[in-house]
Design brief:
- The complex is a heterotrimer of chains A (260), B (266) and C (323).
- Chain A is mostly helical.
- Chain A has one domain (2-259).
- Helices cover 79% and strands 0% of the residues of chain A.
- Chain A has eleven helices and no strands.
- The radius of gyration of chain A is 19 Å and the shape is globular.
- By secondary structure, chain B is mainly alpha-helical.
- Chain B is 79% helix and 0% strand.
- With 323 residues, chain C is of the alpha/beta class.
- Chain C is 35% helix and 31% strand.
- In chain C, the strands form three sheets. In chain C, strands 6-7-8-3-9-10 form a six-stranded mixed β-sheet, sandwiched between helices.
- In chain C, a hairpin with a 2-residue loop joins strand 9 (215-220) and strand 10.
- The chains are: A mainly alpha (260), B mainly alpha (266), C alpha/beta (323).
- The A-B interface holds A 22-23, 26, 30-31, 34, 37-39, 41-46, 52, 55, 164-165, 167-169, 171-172, 175-176, 178-179, 184-186, 189-191 and B 25, 27, 29-30, 33-34, 37-38, 41-42, 44-46, 48-54, 131, 171, 174, 177-178, 181-182, 184-185, 190-191, 195.
- The structure holds adenosine-5'-diphosphate (ADP) and magnesium ion.
- Residues 13, 15, 27, 29, 47, 49-55 of chain C line the site of adenosine-5'-diphosphate.
Amino acid sequence: MSLIRAGWRAFVITIRMRVISTWSYLSWLVFPMLFTIVGLYVLSSGGASSSRLVYGVLGGGLIGYWSVAYLDAGNSIQDERWSGTLEQIFATPTPIWVILFGKVCAGLVFGLVSFLPNAALAYFGFHAVLPALDPWKFVISLGVLTLSFFCIALTLAPLFALWRWAFSMLNGFELGVYILCGFMFPIAALASWAQGVAGVLAPTWAVRALYASTVMQGPHDFTLWWLAAIGLSVVYLAGAYFLYGLVEREARVSGELALA
Amino acid sequence: MRRLALEVAVFVRSIWLQYVALFQWATINGYIAYKLLLPVTQILFFVELGVYATGRQNALYFALGNALQLTANAGIFGVIATVANERQYGTLPLLLASPANRLVTFLSRAIVNVIDGIATVVVGLVITVILFGLDLHRANLPLLGLCVVVISLTTAGLGLMFGSIGLVMRDAIILANVVYYLLLIVCGINFPVSRLPFVLQLVSYSLPLTRGVQAAREAAAGASIGQVSGLLAGELMIGLLWALGGYALFRILESWARRGGLQEAY
Amino acid sequence: MPAIEARRLRKTYKTTRGVFRREKVERVALRGVDLAIEPGELFGVLGPNGAGKTTMTKIFTTLLLPTSGAATVLGLDAVHDQWALRRRIGFVFGGDRGLYWRLSGLDNLRYFADLYRIPPEVTRKRIPALLERLGLAGRERDRVELYSRGMKQRLHLARGLLNDPEVLFLDEPTIGLDPVGARELRVIVRELADAGKTVFLTTHYMFEADAICDRIAVIKGGEIVAEGTPSSIKKVVQDQGVVEFEVVGMPAERVAGLRGLQGVKSVAVVDHELAQVVTIHCSSPADVMTQLGLVLDGMSLEKVSSREPTLEDAYVQLIGESS
Ligand SMILES: Nc1ncnc2c1ncn2[C@@H]1O[C@H](COP(=O)(O)OP(=O)(O)O)[C@@H](O)[C@H]1O
Ligand SMILES: [Mg+2]
């Protein structure tokens, strides 16, 4: 019970810090819109063929969702290291994963909101729509996507605490996922090794289902895609269990938490 | 003569310090990630997007545009980050009060970032060319190289403006971030400027990068220097204007700060 | 059972240095520390920067693992029983980092109260009481960045007391505070100890340890070089006197000459503006005074004086001796 309260408080505090930080508006509001604009211009290069424009409607939102969901918890670890609070929260009787759980959930909330302005921009700026939206499949796919983002973020966040250099590495991963998981274009065009890597990333399957739920042409195998995304997410969580143990130990050996 | 030697010494030293400051990541892992992974992934994203939307034959168009846009990364953020660092370590007042010629201080800042920018573009381009098997055999490579150098200079000019703004605005880096990504939209990086609304086209041509990217694309298609000299001259002009504007702003802010008007600067 | 105990505690940090050619560096921070602190004691660990005070504090507060040896607090092993231990101890590190500056003091406390898993009904009463006790009442809704340095430190202390800890660890809590703020904090710390809490306090100010601690350990280079009550530590220099004078320009061979004098224990030279202040610890100040003229022939000495040793002298000698 007290653990739930601790996680909830971490969630609330993170949300409040985001609301008062200019940076956070960039990451969930401004940047995704800039991506949406470039995306829509490029996708409409060969005339406004609607099947490609779909990627412009959701792509910016997906980018925003992912970057906030994934990076927010990690970035806030980095902030806490700077402010000296990382060590303080680490020393409390609340395990760090509970705190990160709250932080990651806060990121998901902001990330989800980021779909709205992007879809609006696509609609009003480029008359782009989702041609054949199946609301139920769409919502389920979004739920599965959320789960996969959550699991990745929760799994990788402790690495930010452990290694300071992980920060730029993991930032690179953020961009890599835009490509590999097909946020703004289908991955069929990628090199086959890249498609292989994409296959083990849970969001790839969820995003595929999400786009499929908005267009008519099949064949669509929603159940398979959803299950693939959920299954991979569970595998990540198993990895997380291992990583959190490592962080708890390593941080106490090196004393790295305290360094700015 | 001695005065000149002194200035040169200050200049070189200052460049060196700037570069050390850039190396703040302190580990080679962090540096590689920051200097290679991030830029290359960004190029790849837009190339893939462009290839999906317009076909594989256009890969070079997107690769060139996005690689060149990365110079703006070095130019804009490099300068702003140094100013921010100096504020953080409390050395900003020292800089403003230093008897060394401020133009020297200022230029050394830009030069480091120019070098850094060129390196980023070259690495980014080479990797993309290999990954996508791009065909450069018709390209006028020396001219393309010249374009890279010119664009690095001009985006650094724009960067000086933001460095100056950074003196007074704590969150200037946020502004710089937005501008950096705006360049992606308005400078003809991923689609021709002509598709933008007219007002934005005016903005495009008052920014560095727009003409330079056009010139570079023509060079890649085999143009001679004569054919792109107009574009390059225009690009240099614009860069120079931004740099002068940045320097002027710097001088104004500096005298303001010395009169105690700019608490924010410290 | 001691409230805090260390047996043969060692800590070696392994780090890497250099950007391109990375070399591994080992730094020994603690080399076999033994300590036993009784419940209710206010125990001071006194030592210069880099002596290992923070390292020791972090091991007891479960933030660091020792390389070898044992650390127990309240009978709990600081290595393995960290979850149980964290609920029962509090800690405050000096400096103004470690707070959420953009949140109010109250929000900071509420957040940490939940992280310390304190029941809400307890929190509701305890936070106002702590704010009152530490003189923050009325300012709790202001953002922390608006607090003075002293207020931030008291907020830190309030945070450290949220879980009503039986043992409180304070690592250089007065660092960076002005003299008045530092005195206020010392008064509060003394009162906490008087109210029955065990307090572990590190400091590099000798007078601070002297003023409030029941017992002191002097630590130097990761080793305890003296331990006892402030007055017992003064005994180190009991049979000694101190000769001090100022001089301009003190060549090294003259210092060596002073060291060679009979009965001289140590000679310290400290720059003071343009001159140097020379402090000589010796068994017989009168003899040294008469010989000064011989060793420092031709130099003009000023403010020559001799006095009784203080705790500071004991500290300086302990720290100087083992190097
Ligand atoms: N995280 C760390 N990594 C490597 N060396 C460290 C670390 N923390 C402290 N040290 C080293 O250990 C020694 C003791 O440091 P510390 O415990 O902080 O001393 P104090 O608190 O008494 O100033 C110093 O030499 C310091 O440089
Ligand atoms: Mg310390």
